[in-house]
Amino acid sequence: xxxxxxxxxxxxxxxxxxxxxxxxxxxxxxxxxxxxxxxxxxxxxxxxxxxxxxxxxxxxxxxxxxxxxxxxxxxxxxxxxxxxxxxxxxxxxxxxxxxxxxxxxxxxxxxxxxxxxxxxxxxxxxxxxxxxxxxxxxxxxxxxxxxxxxxxxxxxxxxxxxxxxxxxxxxxxxxxxxxxxxxxxxxxxxxxxxxxxxxxxxxxxxxxxxxxxxxxxxxxxxxxxxxxxxxxxxxxxxxxxxxxxxxxxxxxxxxxxxxxxxxxxxxxxxxxxxxxxxxxxxxxxxxxxxxxxxxxxxxxxxxxxxxxxxxxxxx
Length: 315
Fold this sequence. Notes:
It is a single chain. This protein has helices spanning 8-16, 21-31, 36-39, 51-59, 72-88, 254-265, 290-301, and strands spanning 108-112, 119-122, 128-131, 136-140, 147-159, 167-171, 175-179, 183-188, 194-201, 203-208, 214-218, 221-226, 229-234, 246-253, 268-271, 280-286, 305-308, 311-314. The chain has 315 residues and is of the alpha+beta class. It has three domains: 3-88, no CATH class; 108-234, Jelly Rolls, CATH 2.60.120.1440; 245-314, 3-Layer(bab) Sandwich (Phage tail protein beta-alpha-beta fold), CATH 3.55.50. The strands form three sheets. Strands 1, 2, 3, 4, 5, 6, 7, 8, 9, 10, 11, 12 and 13 form a 13-stranded mixed sheet that branches. A three-stranded mixed sheet has the order 15-18-17, with helices on one face. It has a two-stranded antiparallel sheet with strand order 14-16.
């Protein structure tokens, strides 16, 4: 079978896992072919496939827990990704008429924050993103595809520039978020059992990447993903406090509080008194200082503390 014999039916079988071993190998060879931009099969009308297909193909070159590396190898991989992705991704957004020529994929930019810092990033389309501590975002130097796709880890507040012709899609470890132009806070840290969306403007489509379940949230609403279940609730009044440099705790356990302190101040927290682990706390600190926070928590929860060599010990 030659590359010219790769058609819509074969690619659909490849996507659904119904290809023979020989057919699968031929499709994969075609996707990696350096001449892919000139040997693209002449077929169209792929609009019955979903965005999920495009994202699954992206996972072949960038697993959700791994941000791609830069350099020549990355450019080559991204080039193959765009060829493969363009085969599967439609949903009324992209249509192919005849032979399509592809340019090399744009440079991928990665911005990140360490514990103890926040940062604002302006994306190529004019969208603003505020990164909370311990977060990371990757995006192309120019949004040249039919969607504006970014990947993130951690917590961020997005103000997305409106563009009805180019949806804005965010991939995180557990979720897929899609908008046209709106504002919202998204939290999805690796190692945390839940992911949370808080919408402050417009409408946001929020889905579980594993099950495909989806909910639409509007201004003043939150969606929580926990144990493969999506739940729509009222927005958490504490959710956006960090953006205004306010450290807030809304009925958090000491384990959760310790993790937030580590992110906020860039320190290590050790809880020696295990009785504290059952305690919960609600409160907030405007422009917080570590000594002030530790003293207030200690008074409220009944513990003493020691801070030495960047380690806060609670006992």
